[in-house]
């Protein structure tokens, strides 16, 4: 062997060769960035565009349809970034909640022993996942919500909530004096529940005695805040929307753009979550259920203690990527004018300032940050519930 | 002496409640009170959706005519779709040149069918022709400007034709790039590896819309001003990069599934890295992930609709803009149903084909 390796030319040596390839790669990359960099600087110079983030403190001077923080034309471009970001987070958060609920329901329904329900769930999944999301958003926005009646002929639920072409009007809770005590009690109750649960689990591990966790948790989390609420004399009133002239005043308004986006995102993503849930449940072998039943566990306990924890291991990674997709897909908002990050910042703000590089970079970093955070959290959770093989 | 002959009593038929239609109904629809409730709710749902929908789309619909006056009944007005069908399919491509588009798509249709149908011979030759010659032929057919074909600028391309062009070029180029990135990610060279990881994670972490914005706003700044890149080409570049990152992850999944022994055996035979990859590892890995590849293709096909946001006229964009025609106001539902069914049929048949492939290829693994 040593003879041949001596005869070997240096360019046939794997180590040198990989070093050589990598040097070439780095040189190519550096050349590429140098090419882009010089061109960009030259182009910016020619067009007289200044660089830097100074524009963020300039006055924006345009209105935004919906904002979670105080905003009007007199605020800065930095504020428009914040408004867009919060709107993106709002629609993503709500979308994740709804999509998860629908997805789990449909996924379980597809495995139902009721033939009709299983088929209906299958039709739902096959229908909505094969149609582009943008088309669904357009459909809900232009075809469904635009055909709603005018404010005077609103559809109403008990004269409290109203639905018309301008949006959905819901009563808004007005927090009276002392309501913060109720919120604090609730937070304390949740913290206490976590600690009691830990103690109960330890006690069960040590002594085998079970603790009636559900009742205690229910009393703490629901009962205690309610008690405080009534003890303070119900410090909560509702601002019910009223029709005045041609429009409603008061209450909370959910703009049709948000509704359309939310419906489309949840309905679409739920089909993929349903498939993840189905594959997760199918991945748990039937022998596990049989063994658990043979041990004498009740049907609900079999599901809760044996099937679902194992199914979750299959479901979690797929669920993660669906959540990421949902957050990224929320950027389609820009097509119907819901003021999300892309519409407000990469759209209007870019048009007004011309700072393409800074704005696109900021927008992309936000999505990268959200993506990495969600996948980081889900990976941590995944690791926590992963099968420990000995 | 008497002989007792005990005849076995004839077996009774199974109770009517457990066989046949009644048994099936009891078992599958009405097995418990809760299930009965679900079944009734399901039937009510079907009853309230299906008959009106079928009535609207078929029985009460108007099919023939050239103006909106032809739509007299309560149902769908398919006249709208029929009148604008040319535009929906070809965008603003000059009608006298439609034959070029049809030729190009028929040719690729024949080639792909040849590759997919198992019985036909000479797969290698046809495959090489598809990969190396077809793109050139298609380019000249679509764009023209040579061989006596008049030039058709890309801003005139649109409709289903544009959608298909975007999807197939995205797939065609992202495939080799994705394979290279996947190999890079699993390579032992630290710099090549980290560059692949950064590339993949970056493009997978951002929405396609921002990629398209970037390609339409920032790309012109990255190149010298004399070099103007066509708008369609810019969008294609964005889509290809985006798609390559997803393709890389699919291929990586396949590479991970190939046992290490395969590579060791190839090395023991004295094959170089590239030879062992191309002849031993990749064929096996790609075969494993064909369903995943089809899935990314389906996702790409649906995602091409997003190009309407940067002003390209794909199928959805053409239909969407047709609603603004004052002569045809109020037919958005018909338009959306038409586009949705085009996408649905394509995506559904692709997913069915991938399931068929999965079953067919799985046979080799069964022992």
Radius of gyration of chain B, whole Å? 28 Å
Poorly predicted segments of chain A: 1-5
CATH superfamily of the domain at 77-147 and 256-385 in chain A: MetI-like
The CATH architecture assignment of the domain at 77-147 and 256-385 in chain A turns out to be Orthogonal Bundle
**Tell me, what is the CATH class of the domain at 77-147 and 256-385 in chain A?**
Mainly Alpha
Structural class computed from helices and strand pairing of chain A: alpha+beta
Percentage of helical residues of chain B? 55-70%
Task: Give the SSE order of chain A as H and E letters.
Answer: HHHHHEEEEHHEEEEHHHHH
Percent of residues in helices of chain A comes to 55-70%
Mean pLDDT of chain A: 85
As for the CATH topology of the domain at 78-93 and 152-363 in chain B, it is MetI-like fold
Separation, N- and C-terminal Cα atoms of chain B: 62 Å
Which superfamily, in CATH terms, is the homologous superfamily of the domain at 78-93 and 152-363 in chain B? MetI-like
Structural class of chain B: mainly alpha
Question: In words, what does this structure look like?
Answer:
The complex is a heterodimer of chains A (390) and B (367). Chain A is built from 12 helices and 8 strands. With 390 residues, chain A is of the alpha+beta class. Chain A has a domain at 77-147 and 256-385: Orthogonal Bundle (MetI-like fold), CATH 1.10.3720. In chain A, helix 5 (133-144) crosses helix 8 and helix 8 (256-283) packs across helix 10 (299-329). Mean pLDDT of chain A is 85; it is low at 1-5. By secondary structure, chain B is an all-alpha fold. At the A-B interface, helix 2, helix 4, helix 5, helix 11 and helix 12 of A face helix 2, helix 8, helix 9, helix 10 and helix 14 of B.
